[in-house]
Amino acid sequence: MELTLTITGRRCDLALHPVSAKTVERIQTLGRKFYTKKYIHWWRNGNTSTCGMKFDDDCVVKVQLDHREVPFNSAGIGRDAVLLRRRHYLESKARYLALLGYDDEYCHMVWKWTNVAGFDPTRFSFFVHRWDRILGEQDFLILDDVRYDGAFADTQDWGGSCGFSLVDPRIIDLDELRKELGIEQEKPAPKLVAKETPAPAGPAPLESASCDPTARPLVIPVEAPNAVGVHGCTTCKNSTRVELRIEDDVVAAAGGEASGCEYGKECFEALTRLVTGKPVWECWGLSNEDLRPLLPRVLPKLDCDTFTVGALKIALRAWEKRQAA
Question: Which residues form the NIF system FeS cluster assembly NifU N-terminal domain (predicted)?
Protein backbone atom coordinates (compact mmCIF):
# COMPACT_ATOMS: atom_id res chain seq x y z
CA MET A 1 0.00 0.00 0.00
CA GLU A 2 1.02 3.61 -0.54
CA LEU A 3 1.02 6.03 2.39
CA THR A 4 0.89 9.76 1.66
CA LEU A 5 1.30 12.68 4.06
CA THR A 6 0.36 16.12 2.70
CA ILE A 7 0.83 19.34 4.63
CA THR A 8 -0.56 22.58 3.21
CA GLY A 9 0.49 25.89 4.70
CA ARG A 10 3.47 28.22 4.79
CA ARG A 11 6.82 26.85 3.70
CA CYS A 12 9.95 28.24 5.33
CA ASP A 13 13.47 28.31 3.92
CA LEU A 14 15.71 29.92 6.51
CA ALA A 15 19.48 29.88 6.86
CA LEU A 16 22.12 31.08 9.27
CA HIS A 17 25.42 32.39 7.91
CA PRO A 18 28.59 33.38 9.82
CA VAL A 19 29.41 36.96 8.87
CA SER A 20 32.20 39.42 9.65
CA ALA A 21 31.78 42.67 11.55
CA LYS A 22 32.11 44.51 8.23
CA THR A 23 29.25 42.48 6.73
CA VAL A 24 27.17 43.20 9.84
CA GLU A 25 27.61 46.91 9.15
CA ARG A 26 26.54 46.42 5.52
CA ILE A 27 23.43 44.50 6.59
CA GLN A 28 22.51 47.17 9.11
CA THR A 29 22.94 49.84 6.43
CA LEU A 30 21.25 48.05 3.53
CA GLY A 31 18.54 46.08 5.32
CA ARG A 32 16.51 44.03 2.81
CA LYS A 33 18.57 45.46 -0.06
CA PHE A 34 21.41 43.23 1.16
CA TYR A 35 19.81 40.34 -0.78
CA THR A 36 20.30 42.19 -4.07
CA LYS A 37 24.08 42.15 -3.73
CA LYS A 38 24.29 38.47 -4.68
CA TYR A 39 22.28 36.05 -6.82
CA ILE A 40 18.87 35.41 -5.34
CA HIS A 41 19.39 31.96 -3.79
CA TRP A 42 22.97 32.32 -2.51
CA TRP A 43 21.80 32.41 1.10
CA ARG A 44 20.53 28.81 0.76
CA ASN A 45 24.11 27.53 0.57
CA GLY A 46 24.73 27.57 4.32
CA ASN A 47 24.90 24.27 6.19
CA THR A 48 22.49 25.58 8.83
CA SER A 49 19.53 25.93 6.52
CA THR A 50 16.13 24.61 7.55
CA CYS A 51 13.62 24.11 4.78
CA GLY A 52 10.18 22.83 5.70
CA MET A 53 6.61 23.66 6.60
CA LYS A 54 5.73 26.02 9.40
CA PHE A 55 3.59 24.02 11.81
CA ASP A 56 0.90 26.29 13.22
CA ASP A 57 -2.87 26.59 13.48
CA ASP A 58 -3.16 27.57 9.81
CA CYS A 59 -1.57 24.48 8.29
CA VAL A 60 -3.67 21.54 7.09
CA VAL A 61 -2.43 17.96 7.54
CA LYS A 62 -3.89 15.11 5.49
CA VAL A 63 -2.94 11.41 5.53
CA GLN A 64 -4.00 9.00 2.79
CA LEU A 65 -3.62 5.25 2.43
CA ASP A 66 -3.94 4.12 -1.18
CA HIS A 67 -5.46 7.52 -2.02
CA ARG A 68 -8.15 7.23 0.68
CA GLU A 69 -8.00 9.70 3.54
CA VAL A 70 -7.53 8.17 7.00
CA PRO A 71 -8.05 9.85 10.40
CA PHE A 72 -4.98 11.52 11.88
CA ASN A 73 -4.62 13.85 14.86
CA SER A 74 -1.84 16.32 14.07
CA ALA A 75 -1.79 17.91 17.53
CA GLY A 76 1.28 15.95 18.61
CA ILE A 77 3.53 16.89 15.68
CA GLY A 78 5.24 19.73 17.52
CA ARG A 79 5.40 17.97 20.89
CA ASP A 80 9.04 16.92 20.57
CA ALA A 81 10.33 19.99 18.73
CA VAL A 82 14.01 20.65 19.37
CA LEU A 83 15.53 24.06 19.98
CA LEU A 84 17.71 25.06 17.05
CA ARG A 85 21.28 25.07 18.31
CA ARG A 86 24.17 24.66 15.90
CA ARG A 87 27.06 23.76 18.17
CA HIS A 88 29.62 23.84 15.38
CA TYR A 89 28.99 27.60 15.20
CA LEU A 90 28.68 28.11 18.95
CA GLU A 91 32.01 26.33 19.45
CA SER A 92 33.72 28.07 16.54
CA LYS A 93 35.49 31.44 16.44
CA ALA A 94 32.55 33.05 14.63
CA ARG A 95 31.19 36.18 16.34
CA TYR A 96 28.07 36.94 14.30
CA LEU A 97 25.41 35.01 12.39
CA ALA A 98 23.01 36.47 9.85
CA LEU A 99 19.49 35.06 9.56
CA LEU A 100 18.30 35.10 5.94
CA GLY A 101 15.53 33.54 3.87
CA TYR A 102 11.73 33.50 3.94
CA ASP A 103 8.92 32.02 6.04
CA ASP A 104 5.70 32.71 4.13
CA GLU A 105 5.61 30.64 0.91
CA TYR A 106 2.09 29.23 0.80
CA CYS A 107 2.26 25.77 -0.82
CA HIS A 108 2.05 22.07 0.05
CA MET A 109 4.63 19.40 0.80
CA VAL A 110 4.06 15.71 0.13
CA TRP A 111 5.83 12.65 1.56
CA LYS A 112 5.12 9.19 0.09
CA TRP A 113 6.02 5.72 1.36
CA THR A 114 5.44 2.71 -0.90
CA ASN A 115 4.84 -0.90 0.08
CA VAL A 116 3.68 -0.18 3.65
CA ALA A 117 1.77 -2.97 5.39
CA GLY A 118 -0.82 -0.65 6.92
CA PHE A 119 -1.28 2.62 8.77
CA ASP A 120 -0.53 3.21 12.42
CA PRO A 121 -0.28 6.93 13.33
CA THR A 122 2.08 6.16 16.22
CA ARG A 123 4.72 5.05 13.70
CA PHE A 124 5.19 8.60 12.43
CA SER A 125 8.35 10.39 13.62
CA PHE A 126 8.44 14.13 12.94
CA PHE A 127 11.64 16.20 12.86
CA VAL A 128 10.60 19.64 14.05
CA HIS A 129 12.91 22.59 14.76
CA ARG A 130 11.97 25.33 17.21
CA TRP A 131 13.10 28.77 15.99
CA ASP A 132 11.47 30.73 18.85
CA ARG A 133 14.60 32.39 20.20
CA ILE A 134 15.97 33.41 16.81
CA LEU A 135 12.72 34.75 15.36
CA GLY A 136 11.28 36.11 18.59
CA GLU A 137 7.95 34.34 18.11
CA GLN A 138 6.54 31.78 20.52
CA ASP A 139 6.07 28.27 19.12
CA PHE A 140 7.70 29.03 15.77
CA LEU A 141 8.00 25.41 14.63
CA ILE A 142 9.35 24.18 11.28
CA LEU A 143 8.62 20.61 10.21
CA ASP A 144 11.84 19.56 8.51
CA ASP A 145 11.28 15.88 7.69
CA VAL A 146 9.21 12.81 8.54
CA ARG A 147 9.82 9.10 9.02
CA TYR A 148 7.25 6.33 9.05
CA ASP A 149 8.06 3.08 10.81
CA GLY A 150 11.69 4.21 11.01
CA ALA A 151 12.04 4.92 7.27
CA PHE A 152 12.31 8.22 5.44
CA ALA A 153 9.83 8.78 2.59
CA ASP A 154 10.53 7.15 -0.75
CA THR A 155 9.70 10.47 -2.41
CA GLN A 156 9.35 14.00 -1.09
CA ASP A 157 7.97 16.84 -3.19
CA TRP A 158 6.35 20.24 -2.96
CA GLY A 159 4.14 22.35 -5.21
CA GLY A 160 1.40 24.94 -5.50
CA SER A 161 3.68 27.82 -4.56
CA CYS A 162 2.13 31.27 -4.46
CA GLY A 163 5.44 33.11 -3.99
CA PHE A 164 7.20 34.42 -0.90
CA SER A 165 8.71 37.51 0.71
CA LEU A 166 12.27 37.53 2.05
CA VAL A 167 12.61 38.33 5.74
CA ASP A 168 14.54 41.31 7.00
CA PRO A 169 18.14 40.15 7.64
CA ARG A 170 18.73 39.65 11.34
CA ILE A 171 22.06 39.63 13.18
CA ILE A 172 22.76 37.20 16.03
CA ASP A 173 25.65 37.93 18.39
CA LEU A 174 27.14 34.52 19.17
CA ASP A 175 29.21 35.81 22.09
CA GLU A 176 26.03 36.87 23.87
CA LEU A 177 24.41 33.52 23.08
CA ARG A 178 27.46 31.61 24.35
CA LYS A 179 27.31 33.49 27.65
CA GLU A 180 23.59 32.76 27.94
CA LEU A 181 24.12 29.04 27.30
CA GLY A 182 27.31 28.79 29.36
CA ILE A 183 29.34 27.42 26.46
CA GLU A 184 33.10 27.77 26.53
CA GLN A 185 34.79 28.19 23.19
CA GLU A 186 37.06 25.40 22.04
CA LYS A 187 39.66 25.40 19.34
CA PRO A 188 38.00 24.49 16.05
CA ALA A 189 38.90 21.12 14.58
CA PRO A 190 41.27 21.22 11.59
CA LYS A 191 39.52 21.32 8.27
CA LEU A 192 39.62 18.16 6.19
CA VAL A 193 41.33 18.47 2.85
CA ALA A 194 39.11 17.36 0.02
CA LYS A 195 40.31 15.37 -2.94
CA GLU A 196 40.81 17.38 -6.07
CA THR A 197 37.76 17.91 -8.24
CA PRO A 198 38.41 18.13 -11.99
CA ALA A 199 38.43 21.79 -12.95
CA PRO A 200 35.76 22.66 -15.53
CA ALA A 201 36.96 24.02 -18.84
CA GLY A 202 34.42 26.82 -18.76
CA PRO A 203 30.70 27.57 -18.43
CA ALA A 204 28.41 25.13 -20.19
CA PRO A 205 26.44 26.41 -23.19
CA LEU A 206 22.84 27.46 -22.59
CA GLU A 207 20.22 25.45 -24.48
CA SER A 208 16.44 25.06 -24.44
CA ALA A 209 14.65 21.71 -24.15
CA SER A 210 11.65 19.96 -22.64
CA CYS A 211 11.67 17.53 -19.71
CA ASP A 212 11.06 14.25 -21.57
CA PRO A 213 11.88 11.10 -19.55
CA THR A 214 14.13 8.61 -21.33
CA ALA A 215 13.57 4.87 -21.31
CA ARG A 216 16.29 3.63 -18.98
CA PRO A 217 17.27 5.09 -15.63
CA LEU A 218 20.91 5.95 -15.01
CA VAL A 219 22.24 3.83 -12.15
CA ILE A 220 25.58 4.45 -10.44
CA PRO A 221 25.99 1.79 -7.73
CA VAL A 222 27.41 2.67 -4.33
CA GLU A 223 28.61 -0.05 -2.00
CA ALA A 224 27.12 0.17 1.51
CA PRO A 225 25.61 3.68 1.28
CA ASN A 226 24.86 5.34 4.62
CA ALA A 227 23.06 8.44 3.33
CA VAL A 228 20.16 8.44 0.87
CA GLY A 229 18.07 11.30 -0.48
CA VAL A 230 15.24 11.30 -3.04
CA HIS A 231 13.80 14.37 -4.76
CA GLY A 232 11.07 14.30 -7.39
CA CYS A 233 10.82 16.44 -10.51
CA THR A 234 7.71 18.63 -10.52
CA THR A 235 7.54 18.42 -14.33
CA CYS A 236 8.02 14.78 -15.32
CA LYS A 237 7.17 13.38 -11.83
CA ASN A 238 10.23 11.09 -11.92
CA SER A 239 12.81 11.20 -9.17
CA THR A 240 16.53 11.34 -8.51
CA ARG A 241 17.91 9.14 -5.75
CA VAL A 242 21.30 10.18 -4.38
CA GLU A 243 23.24 7.58 -2.40
CA LEU A 244 26.39 8.44 -0.47
CA ARG A 245 28.91 6.48 1.51
CA ILE A 246 30.34 8.88 4.06
CA GLU A 247 33.51 7.93 5.92
CA ASP A 248 35.15 10.18 8.53
CA ASP A 249 32.88 13.07 7.48
CA VAL A 250 34.02 12.82 3.84
CA VAL A 251 31.99 11.54 0.86
CA ALA A 252 33.94 8.43 -0.10
CA ALA A 253 31.52 7.39 -2.87
CA ALA A 254 28.46 8.89 -4.54
CA GLY A 255 25.85 7.39 -6.85
CA GLY A 256 22.25 6.25 -6.90
CA GLU A 257 19.66 6.43 -9.67
CA ALA A 258 18.21 9.09 -11.96
CA SER A 259 14.88 8.17 -13.59
CA GLY A 260 13.93 11.38 -15.36
CA CYS A 261 14.99 13.13 -18.55
CA GLU A 262 18.42 13.06 -20.17
CA TYR A 263 19.31 16.45 -18.71
CA GLY A 264 18.41 15.22 -15.23
CA LYS A 265 20.75 12.28 -15.71
CA GLU A 266 23.53 14.62 -16.81
CA CYS A 267 22.98 16.66 -13.64
CA PHE A 268 22.99 13.51 -11.52
CA GLU A 269 26.21 12.17 -13.07
CA ALA A 270 27.91 15.55 -12.63
CA LEU A 271 26.83 15.70 -8.99
CA THR A 272 28.43 12.34 -8.21
CA ARG A 273 31.73 13.63 -9.62
CA LEU A 274 31.39 16.94 -7.80
CA VAL A 275 30.85 15.60 -4.27
CA THR A 276 33.13 12.55 -4.24
CA GLY A 277 36.07 13.30 -1.99
CA LYS A 278 34.55 16.42 -0.48
CA PRO A 279 33.94 16.86 3.26
CA VAL A 280 30.31 16.88 4.34
CA TRP A 281 30.55 20.49 5.49
CA GLU A 282 31.62 21.53 1.99
CA CYS A 283 28.84 19.52 0.31
CA TRP A 284 26.27 21.35 2.43
CA GLY A 285 27.35 24.60 0.77
CA LEU A 286 26.89 23.38 -2.82
CA SER A 287 24.14 24.70 -5.08
CA ASN A 288 23.03 24.23 -8.67
CA GLU A 289 25.40 27.07 -9.57
CA ASP A 290 28.32 24.80 -8.56
CA LEU A 291 26.90 21.96 -10.65
CA ARG A 292 26.44 23.83 -13.90
CA PRO A 293 30.13 24.27 -14.85
CA LEU A 294 30.47 20.46 -14.86
CA LEU A 295 27.56 19.95 -17.27
CA PRO A 296 27.97 19.49 -21.03
CA ARG A 297 25.05 21.90 -21.48
CA VAL A 298 22.72 24.05 -19.36
CA LEU A 299 18.96 24.08 -19.88
CA PRO A 300 17.83 27.19 -17.95
CA LYS A 301 14.12 26.42 -18.32
CA LEU A 302 14.50 23.09 -16.50
CA ASP A 303 15.13 22.73 -12.77
CA CYS A 304 16.82 19.32 -12.89
CA ASP A 305 20.05 20.75 -11.49
CA THR A 306 18.17 22.24 -8.53
CA PHE A 307 16.24 19.00 -7.85
CA THR A 308 19.46 16.96 -8.06
CA VAL A 309 21.17 19.15 -5.49
CA GLY A 310 17.96 18.94 -3.45
CA ALA A 311 18.29 15.14 -3.34
CA LEU A 312 21.89 15.60 -2.15
CA LYS A 313 20.76 17.91 0.67
CA ILE A 314 18.07 15.43 1.75
CA ALA A 315 20.73 12.69 1.89
CA LEU A 316 23.07 14.88 3.94
CA ARG A 317 20.23 15.85 6.27
CA ALA A 318 19.34 12.19 6.83
CA TRP A 319 22.97 11.34 7.59
CA GLU A 320 23.31 14.30 9.96
CA LYS A 321 20.20 13.24 11.88
CA ARG A 322 21.51 9.71 12.33
CA GLN A 323 24.81 11.11 13.58
CA ALA A 324 22.99 13.26 16.12
CA ALA A 325 20.71 10.45 17.32
Answer: 226-324
pLDDT (tens digit, 9 = 90+) per residue, 6-41? 999 998 888 877 778 888 898 889 888 887 776 556
Alpha-carbon radius of gyration of the chain: 20
Please check whether residues 33 and 133 belong to one and the same domain.
Answer: yes
For residue range 176-222, what is the model confidence (pLDDT) as tens digits?
777 766 655 554 444 444 445 455 445 555 444 555 666 688 999 99
User: What is the C-alpha separation between 181 and 90, in angstroms, rounded?
Assistant: 10
- The CA distance from 297 to 299, in Å, is 7
On whether both 252 and 138 belong to a single domain, the answer is: no
- Residue 310 is part of a domain; what is its CATH number? 3.90.1010.10
Could you tell me if 171 and 236 lie in one domain? no
Domain carrying residue 318: 218-324
Residues ≥6 apart with Cβ < 8 Å to 21: 95, 96
Q: Specify whether 176 is located in the same domain as 223.
A: no
Does 196 fall in a domain?
no
Sign of CA dihedral 284, 106, 156, 268: negative
What are phi and psi for residue 156, nearest 5 degrees? -135, 130
